[in-house]
């Protein structure tokens, strides 16, 4: 075989190989002297959002074709056939030269997002970690529909702020996955629900709150009993008061009864000569000292310790009083 024939055969084989490598789907334009064509490395493609790939083109004139996308918002293509997927949808990419063109149909896949929980519940102050992944490994953006109820940071960490419901959304490339979140009201338990005190006595109330939040304390009758921010109750005077511990709208009540004391005197009736003195004692169930008084200080007087002094002939009542309770001793002053 002559050298010329071998060369022609080699060229022919190259053309055949190229044709089979680049599937033929092109528009030809022919004249008496030439045929125009565009061959592509692929005519159909599927790609995830954010990914890139190349479409190689061979043209009859050996020049780079002009590329065009039917929707560059879905996928764009540059001068060299580099394709960039932007959003889900289908697009046709066309390589064109004079008198010939070829197209590649590209499907940009919708991004699928999976989330670790579709529903969850927490209490105020409690934290929860959510995770999510995109099918194309795109970065996840987090959002709470009601940030007054719960907030979420860029890493999926949720903090409950107050009772209510919100939707946590994980987003990427226009696709979303959601978690319905409920921030529950806490449970509140008191160590005492009923207590009895005397005036001046103190007691410590404590609250067990499921969320760990400290309650606010309040009394409905400050004249009867008061309470500080730590639950320390002080009885003020005889009567009934309600002490309330509240967290996030949930309240528990302790009824405080400030009871009248019982007073017992060492003598119910005595006789004293004018100018003499005698002391009586008082036992008060509350442990508080009584207040002493005389019904007629012209006849008999009494000091703060219960010492009675006879002033002149007559009868007087000596009272020992404590928080609304009185006990009396009848004093007869004789000459």
TrEMBL record:
What SUPFAM superfamilies does its record include?
Answer: Invasin/intimin cell-adhesion fragments (SSF49373)
Q: Where is the signal peptide?
A: 1-29
Say yes or no: keyword Signal present: yes
Which InterPro entries does the protein's record reference?
A: Big_2, Invasin/intimin_cell_adhesion, NUP210-like
Q: What are the UniProt keywords, alphabetically? A: Signal
- BIG2 domain segment(s): 34-107, 109-182, 184-257, 259-331
UniProt superkingdom: Bacteria
Question: Can you name this protein?
Answer: Bacterial Ig-like domain (Group 2)
Q: What is the lineage of its organism?
A: Bacteria, Bacillati, Bacillota, Clostridia, Eubacteriales
């Amino acid at each position: 075989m002559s050298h010329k024939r071998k060369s022609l055969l080699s060229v022919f084989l190259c053309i055949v190989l190229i044709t089979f490598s680049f599937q033929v789907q092109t528009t030809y334009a022919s004249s008496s002297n030439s045929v125009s064509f565009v061959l592509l490395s692929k005519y159909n493609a599927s790609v995830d959002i954010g990914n890139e790939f190349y479409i190689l083109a061979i043209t009859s004139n050996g020049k780079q074709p002009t590329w065009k996308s039917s929707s560059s918002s879905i996928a764009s293509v540059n001068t060299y056939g580099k394709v960039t997927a932007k959003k889900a949808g289908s697009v046709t990419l066309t390589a064109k030269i004079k008198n010939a063109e070829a197209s590649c149909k590209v499907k940009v896949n919708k991004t699928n997002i999976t989330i670790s929980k579709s529903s969850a519940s927490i209490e105020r102050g409690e934290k929860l970690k959510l995770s999510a992944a995109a099918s194309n490994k795109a970065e996840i953006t987090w959002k709470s529909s009601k940030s007054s109820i719960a907030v979420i940071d860029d890493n999926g960490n949720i903090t409950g702020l107050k009772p209510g419901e919100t939707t946590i959304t994980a987003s990427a490339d226009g696709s979303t996955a959601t978690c319905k979140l409920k921030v529950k009201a806490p449970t509140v338990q008191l160590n005492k629900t009923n207590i009895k005190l005397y005036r001046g006595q103190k007691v410590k109330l404590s609250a067990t709150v499921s969320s760990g939040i400290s309650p606010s304390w309040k009394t409905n009758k400050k004249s009867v009993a008061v309470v500080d921010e730590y639950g320390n109750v002080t009885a003020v005077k005889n009567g009934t008061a309600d002490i309330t511990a509240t967290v996030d709208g949930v309240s528990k009540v302790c009824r405080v009864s400030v009871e009248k004391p019982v007073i017992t005197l060492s003598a119910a009736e005595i006789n004293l000569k004018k100018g003499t003195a005698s002391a009586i004692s008082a036992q008060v169930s509350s442990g508080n000292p009584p207040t002493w008084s005389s019904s007629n200080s012209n006849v008999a007087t009494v000091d703060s310790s219960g010492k009675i002094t006879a002033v002149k002939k007559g009868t007087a009542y000596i009272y020992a009083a404590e928080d609304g309770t009185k006990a009396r001793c009848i004093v007869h002053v004789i000459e």
